[in-house]
Amino acid sequence: MLNKVLKIVGIVFGSLVLLGIMAYGAMSYYFRYRFPYGTYINNVNAATFTTEQMNDYLLRNYIPGVDYSNISLLVEGRDGYSETIKCADIELKADMTGELNRIMSDQKPYEWIVSWLYPIQYKVTPSITYDEKALREEVGKLKCVNGSEYKKKPVVRLEPDDNGYHLYDEIKDRADADRIFEMARTALDNIDKSVIEMDIEDCYIAHEIPSEYKDVISLYDKIEKLKAARITFQDDKLKYTLNGDLAVSWLQKGEDGLPFVDEKGDLVFDETRLEGYTDFLSDVFNTTGGYIDWVKHSGGTVTLKNSMPGYIVDKTAEKEKIKEQLLRGGALKRRPLYESEGNGRGNDRVGKTYIEVDMGEQKLYYYVDGQLSMSSDVVTGNLAKGNGTPSKLCYVYFKQRNRTLRGRDYATFVNYWMAVTGHIGIHDATWRNKFGGNIYKTAGSHGCINVPKDFAGKLYEVVEVGTPCIMYY
């Protein structure tokens, strides 16, 4: 009986073992073409998936919202240009089966229990393929490469505008198909969204102007060179800049309304406009004429007419120099060209050595380097007879010894004569025994400044022609 039981148990156990072996073998066979348990690809449990099933699933979920069958390239360029290349037209495909098959081939189906106990994580990426020939053809069809505007006869013309002259160049820059093709290849190798934006600003090739427009371009370049020119005139604290923008408005124009060039190829200026500008420079930089505010030795300020020689712009030379420098172009700084130069500007034109005649005090002061050197009482022009000495800034323009002064009703000998303005000068008056006070009001001179002989001699020896003389009441 025991033997019979043992035999039955043996048969049952053997059957169970055989069934287990058969079940294990069946599972091993099942996983020959499926991923075993414990296989994770891109954080997805791939157990029981075939490579085709896993490929479809991963492609749908690899980049959220990206359908590889509907990807497109959005080409964007200048002036709001945009155009689309559909990747379906270049047979673009994404596939992971190559890497998935490699993972599958590395696994052993009969180790499916071990895989279950020891899971493994894998990382795969899509392989992008497309027809490069088709891509190149699609790029060649883009309007920025082969649009109808590139087949028109080009027009290049120069027209006046508010800023001078504008070059209307209707020739458009064409985009380089090879550069766009390479940019597209790079973009397709790095797909991260359904619409891939491509900015082709750097893909344009600068066009060349046809030789038939060389004269237009030459004229435009000359005008632009003139427009960019700058001449800054500066002397002491005075400064003024002539901009090329203004000079462009001085150009002479032909019947077509455009500037023209002379036989040397230089732009031609309207001489009247240039002369008007040199007149303006003279107003700015000349120091002859006008008035000066003088601080009297006793305090207070008096305004005097200026008759001292000073800076005078050489308008003829300056006109030619301005033309030369404007045509040469560039920016430069210089002093104006003068036909004569003075001692300075403002009160500086007087300097530190001068004669000051205060006709209200009837006193003459001679300053050397800002220090009083000598002074004397004087008698100036007779106010009662209308011969008053004028108030003005003048200068010693002539010196002479032993001169006879002549007028309508007089001829007077003087030992020292220092002319300061017109027929008025500083001289000795030996016929007078008194100076200063109020003599000038009723018994003054014909307009000259009378001084004692000794003082006249000393002043004559030291004063120089050109010495400023300030006279005021």
Strand order of the largest sheet: 15-16-23-28-20-21-22
Rg over C-alpha atoms, rounded to the nearest angstrom: 52 Å
Q: Label the overall shape.
A: elongated
Distance between the termini: 165 Å
Task: Assign a percent range to the helix content.
Answer: 25-40%
| CATH architecture classification of the domain at 350-472 | Beta Barrel
Number of helical stretches of at least 4 residues: 13
Describe the 3D structure.
There is one protein chain. The chain is α+β, with helices and mostly antiparallel strands. Among the domains are: 215-291 and 307-340, Ubiquitin-like (UB roll), CATH 3.10.20; 350-472, L,D-transpeptidase catalytic domain-like (Beta Barrel), CATH 2.40.440.10. Helices cover 31% and strands 28% of the residues. It contains 13 helices and 28 strands. It has a seven-stranded mixed sheet with strand order 15-16-23-28-20-21-22, with no helix packed on it. Strands 24-25-26-27 form a four-stranded mixed sheet, with helices on one face. Strands 2-1-6 form a three-stranded mixed sheet, with no helix packed on it. A hairpin with a 2-residue loop joins strand 25 and strand 26 (424-428). Helix 2 crosses helix 3 (97-106). The longest helix is centred in the N-terminal third of the chain and has 29 residues, at 2-30. It is elongated, with a radius of gyration of 52 Å. The N and C termini lie far apart (165 Å).
